[in-house]
């Protein structure tokens, strides 16, 4: 039988208590959060020890019980869409002269612990040595406007250009934590336990390479006193499938004079396929003649690829092939016929009237 | 000599107002292209629109940014909302130094069926406020075949003049030698990227030489796409034949009216001769109150022109895909023989 609840203001249940109970003693170890346990007779918290558990802690309301929960952020990784990167670079190029970095909001969606960053917009801000000012009205207005177009893209975090995370960043991050909670209250969403993401894009190429990193913030605190916020990096998936669809040749160079049409694109793809087949030939030759090391995995992949060509007898294949060719020829003939018809119809319609 | 000199001086003075060089190329930023693709793909198969922002420089129209429009419900009060949204977005974008200049709009289309009267009307609306505007059409279904289906369209000047006078009779069209190919003018698109983003893209390009667009292009099954194309083509042909029927009806009624007029005139003449013989006043040879003299309105050619445009578009697409199919089939054949 435990003594009566000693927490002064927050406990609304003064029934029998069976364990240490109170607002104090929340200790954190990096990456893990120790939960403080709140045993009321009615409901035990998830993860806490149940009243029936014989291994109850000894009686003392001064003890801090450490329990290891998994990391409090359910975010496992993030995926970046190329539009966001283009937008960030464009905003950076257009920034006002006195700012040396750009910050803005990230929009997207979360599913299964993977955050998909789909859209973004820059937010004007002022930064000096000791304080940071952000245009909150602007952020909220743009957020509402974007929601009008696509209500499924919600706030998932914020970005900043520049390498690494600075002191001002943590203040901005706190602001976004609060914003996320507010916006989630509006949307009544179930993903209210997802903290915001912080993305840094190094436009200065400080390490000589493009470093785009995503961070999640974890609070470090000792007892009641918050010590610091630690920004932990999470894996970022930069495979840009949409950019691949458009074609990296178009997006890579500074000027593209002409968009390739159907047949030119086809030609480029065929050349690439041919190059791939050539590579495979050379590799197999090398392996057979002992010039290159044998790799079983690659061999198995090759065997699978070759086996996926369907086995059809030559007669059947010829028939299918000819049928397809005839279908396509019929379509081309039809379209030429229609064009001729169009020419004739037009002449008839605007011909001189019968007078 | 002096005459020509004087005239050229006067001409030079009078033409001090700037004559805009003809629009030759539309230059788009990679950012705008990706945004358009993202917006259209997200909402396909619904048709969406958005605004283009950029600069008008000489004979090049640069598109540097764009923003999407929300899908408008059929509600009266949301009209004002739409205008507010646009103003709000433009204001916010200006604060971050984005070009605040509207130079046109973009829209998505389904299999290329975008030549409608609404398009022309939107063009005329835009043309009143902006000197040069362009419409970018993106086709998500064709892009899934591997080609980047972006088109920049503009109305030709001669067509715009005619439309302003709202006069689409056969004579006018023959006079101006305006045929259905002259309504829309397609402008080539150039794509430009800033150096920063090109550095990023070069870094992030994946190692493998084959990309997603190649997978899309080398797919063998194009039957659904062709089938839909043919369906639309057949529908359009039916529309075209109904338009032709309208014209035939008009010509027939016109010739019938002519015959009636002749007959009536003949009768009048005979009557007049009789009257002259009897010494009375001859009746007038025209009678505007008679209904057979009422001119029959000629049906407008605009619809048939638009339909013809659509049909030719479908035909082009079919040709393109059939060409690709041939190449793919021959690749399969070569692969099979080996």
UniProtKB/TrEMBL annotation, chain A:
PROSITE patterns in UniProt: MPN
Key words of the record: Cytoplasm, Initiation factor, Protein biosynthesis
UniProt superkingdom: Eukaryota
GO molecular function: metallopeptidase activity; translation initiation factor activity; translation initiation factor binding
MPN domain: residues covered: 78-221
GO cellular component: eukaryotic translation initiation factor 3 complex, eIF3m
SMART domains: JAB_MPN (SM00232)
HAMAP family documented for this protein: eIF3f (MF_03005)
Listed PANTHER family: EUKARYOTIC TRANSLATION INITIATION FACTOR 3 SUBUNIT F, EUKARYOTIC TRANSLATION INITIATION FACTOR 3 SUBUNIT F-RELATED
Protein name according to UniProt: MPN domain-containing protein
Automatic annotation (TrEMBL), chain B:
4Fe-4S recorded as keyword: no
Listed GO MF terms: metallopeptidase activity; translation initiation factor activity
Cellular compartment(s): Cytoplasm
Record keyword Protein biosynthesis present: yes
InterPro entries: eIF3h, eIF3h_C, JAMM/MPN+_dom, JAMM_MPN+_peptidase_M67A, MPN
Pfam families referenced in this protein's UniProt entry, alphabetically: eIF3h_C (PF19445), JAB (PF01398)
PROSITE patterns, alphabetized: MPN (PS50249)
Gene Ontology CC annotation, any one: eukaryotic translation initiation factor 3 complex
Annotated segments matching region Disordered: 276-295
Keywords associated with the record: Cytoplasm, Initiation factor, Protein biosynthesis
Gene3D superfamilies xref list: Cytidine Deaminase, domain 2
Main location: cytoplasm
Residue ranges of every copy of the MPN domain listed in the record: 26-159
Any one GO BP annotation for this protein: formation of cytoplasmic translation initiation complex
Family listed: Belongs to the eIF-3 subunit H family.
Subunit structure of this chain's protein: Component of the eukaryotic translation initiation factor 3 (eIF-3) complex.
HAMAP family: eIF3h
Task performed by this protein: Component of the eukaryotic translation initiation factor 3 (eIF-3) complex, which is involved in protein synthesis of a specialized repertoire of mRNAs and, together with other initiation factors, stimulates binding of mRNA and methionyl-tRNAi to the 40S ribosome. The eIF-3 complex specifically targets and initiates translation of a subset of mRNAs involved in cell proliferation.
Protein known as: Eukaryotic translation initiation factor 3 subunit H
Organism for this UniProt entry: Musa troglodytarum
């Amino acid at each position: 039988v435990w003594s009566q609840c000693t927490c002064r203001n927050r406990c609304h249940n003064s029934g029998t208590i069976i364990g240490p109970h109170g607002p104090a003693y929340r200790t954190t170890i990096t990456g893990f959060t120790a939960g403080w346990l709140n045993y009321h007779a009615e409901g035990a918290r998830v993860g806490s020890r149940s009243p029936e558990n014989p291994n109850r802690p000894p009686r003392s309301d001064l003890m801090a019980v450490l329990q290891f929960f998994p990391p409090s952020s359910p975010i496992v990784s993030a995926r970046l869409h190329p539009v966001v990167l283009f937008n960030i670079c464009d905003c950076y190029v257009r920034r006002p002269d006195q700012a040396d970095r750009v910050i803005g909001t990230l929009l997207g969606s979360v599913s299964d612990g993977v955050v998909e960053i789909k859209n973004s917009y820059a937010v004007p801000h002022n930064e000096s040595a000791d304080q940071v000012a952000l245009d909150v009205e602007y952020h909220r207005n743009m957020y509402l406007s974007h929601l009008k177009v696509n209500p499924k893209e919600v706030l998932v975090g914020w970005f900043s250009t520049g390498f690494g995370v600075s002191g001002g960043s943590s203040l901005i991050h706190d602001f976004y934590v609060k914003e996320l909670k507010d916006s989630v209250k509006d949307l009544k969403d179930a993903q209210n336990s997802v903290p915001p993401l912080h993305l840094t894009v190094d436009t200065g190429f400080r390490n000589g390479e493009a470093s785009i990193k995503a961070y999640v913030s974890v609070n470090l605190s000792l007892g009641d006193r918050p010590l610091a916020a630690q920004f932990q990096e999470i894996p970022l998936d930069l495979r840009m499938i949409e950019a691949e669809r458009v074609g990296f040749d178009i997006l890579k160079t500074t000027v593209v004079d002409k968009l390739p049409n159907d047949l030119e694109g086809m030609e480029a793809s065929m050349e690439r396929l041919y190059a791939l087949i050539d590579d495979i030939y050379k590799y197999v030759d090398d392996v057979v003649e002992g010039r290159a090391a044998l790799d079983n995995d690659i061999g198995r992949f090759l065997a699978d690829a070759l086996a996926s060509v369907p086995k059809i007898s030559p007669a059947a294949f010829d028939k299918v092939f000819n049928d397809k060719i005839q279908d396509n020829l019929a379509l081309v003939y039809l379209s030429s016929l229609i064009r001729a018809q169009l020419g004739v119809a037009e002449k008839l319609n605007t011909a001189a009237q019968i007078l | 000599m002096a005459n020509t000199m004087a005239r050229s001086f006067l001409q030079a003075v009078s033409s001090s107002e700037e004559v805009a060089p003809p629009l030759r190329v539309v230059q788009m930023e990679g950012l705008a292209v990706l945004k358009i693709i993202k917006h259209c793909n997200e909402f396909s198969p619904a048709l969406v629109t958005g605004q283009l922002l950029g600069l008008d420089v000489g004979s090049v129209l640069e598109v540097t940014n764009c923003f999407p429009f929300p899908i408008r419900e059929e509600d009266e009060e949301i009209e004002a909302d739409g205008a507010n949204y646009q103003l709000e977005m433009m204001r916010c974008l200006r604060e971050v130094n984005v070009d605040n200049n509207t130079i046109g709009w973009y829209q998505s289309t389904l299999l290329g069926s975008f030549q409608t009267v609404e398009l022309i009307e939107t063009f005329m609306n835009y043309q009143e406020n902006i000197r040069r505007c362009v419409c970018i059409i993106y086709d998500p279904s064709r892009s899934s075949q591997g080609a980047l289906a972006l088109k920049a369209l503009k109305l030709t000047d001669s067509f715009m003049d005619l439309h302003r006078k709202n006069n689409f009779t056969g004579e006018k069209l023959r006079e101006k030698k305006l045929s259905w190919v002259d309504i829309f003018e397609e402008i080539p698109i150039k794509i430009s990227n800033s150096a920063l983003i090109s550095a990023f893209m070069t870094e992030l390009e994946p190692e493998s030489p084959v990309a997603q667009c190649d997978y899309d292009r080398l797919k063998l099954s194009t039957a659904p796409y062709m089938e839909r194309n043919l369906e639309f083509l057949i529908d359009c042909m039916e529309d075209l034949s109904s338009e032709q029927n309208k014209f035939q009806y008009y010509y027939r009624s016109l010739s019938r009216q002519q015959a009636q007029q002749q007959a009536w005139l003949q009768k009048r003449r005979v009557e007049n001769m009789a009257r002259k013989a009897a010494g009375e006043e001859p009746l007038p040879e025209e009678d505007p109150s008679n209904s057979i003299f009422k001119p029959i309105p000629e049906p407008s050619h605009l619809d048939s022109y638009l339909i013809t445009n659509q049909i030719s578009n479908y035909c082009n697409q079919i040709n393109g895909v059939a060409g690709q199919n041939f190449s793919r089939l021959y690749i399969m054949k070569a692969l099979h023989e080996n």
